[in-house]
Amino acid sequence: MTKTDTSYTKGFRSGGYNFRITDVAVFLGQIVPNTGDFGFDEEEVDAYEIGFKSTSEDGRVQLNGAAFLTEIGDTQREVNTAGPSGVVQNILNTADATIMGVEVDGRWAATNNLLLTFNVGMIDAEYDEVSFDISGDTLVNQRDEDLALPRVPQLTYGFGVIHDTDLGDMGALVSRANLQYRDRIAYTDSNFGWVQGTTQVSANLTWETPYDGFAVSLFGDNLLDEVQVGNDTQLPFPGPLSNGVQTPFQAIPGGGTFSPLKKGRVVGVEFTIAR
């Protein structure tokens, strides 16, 4: 059985004013002369999507997919840059952009005790027209349009497996393993700040005891112990390896950065009581 659906959504985000001006001199000397205004205009979004959901006759196989197109006008961005007194943050209308992509996910009950899952997503995001200097070279040109939109990975995919074993009077044993991959992403509009691609592997083994609501789990997250930052914001002073030259996605940052690390490998035991 297969079902299809289509949708169209139009959304608005109202304009406003920057009440958190972290550097008044930069705001009055650079932002206002470039934008011609103390505030920012509304953002407008048109989103189109077509998708399907398909299930086999016996219910063991399920496949879902969708293709989408999102057009954004006068994108509102909280632009982070390194200023003389620290990190400068201003909400600005930076560009018009188009984001299109496809997503597919599915599951297969191979046996009564074994479930396999997968997901994959591909996104193409580009600027159509840039109205503010997001590259930091004081010009609005092709260099700005060639930058990657922040927080948009080109590729994501994952695989998972769930298996359960009936232990009779001893309860049940449920095991799970999952792998998720995400491409690198730009963190700041200039692409000077970025977050590495990552492959996250997790596993969980849970004993559902015969005592109602009591379970014991052995779990592991980030089992490959991958280094991953939570964000990457530029600072106004140099780092120990910086060369003073900022370029998008550079291996060694041109200046200092604020890049807090996420947790590395975590392995633990968890006791759960649900009442």
Describe this structure in words.
This protein has 275 residues and is mostly beta strands. It has 2 domains: 1-101 and 119-147, no CATH class; 155-275, no CATH class. It is built from 2 helices and 18 strands. It has helices at 24-35, 142-145, and strands spanning 2-13, 16-17, 39-40, 43-55, 61-73, 76-83, 86-93, 95-109, 114-130, 155-166, 172-182, 185-186, 194-195, 198-208, 214-221, 233-234, 257-258, 266-273. It has a 10-stranded antiparallel beta sheet with strand order 1-4-5-8-9-10-11-14-15-18, with no helix packed on it. A two-stranded antiparallel sheet has the order 2-3. Strands 6-7 form a two-stranded antiparallel ribbon. Strand 8 (95-109) and strand 9 form a beta hairpin. It is globular, with a radius of gyration of 24 Å. The model has no long low-confidence stretch (mean pLDDT 93).
What are the defining features of this structure?
275 residues; mainly beta; 2 domains; ten-stranded antiparallel β-sheet
Query: How many separate domains make up the residues?
Result: 2
**Would you tell me the overall average pLDDT?**
93
Return residue spans where pLDDT drops below 50 for at least 5 consecutive residues. none
The fraction of residues in strands falls at over 45%
Biggest sheet descriptor: 10 strands, antiparallel
As a percent range, the share of helical residues equals under 10%
Number of alpha- plus pi-helical segments: 2
The count of strands amounts to 18
Distance, first to last CA? 38 Å
Strand order of the largest sheet: 1-4-5-8-9-10-11-14-15-18
What is the global morphology? Answer: globular
Global structural class = mainly beta
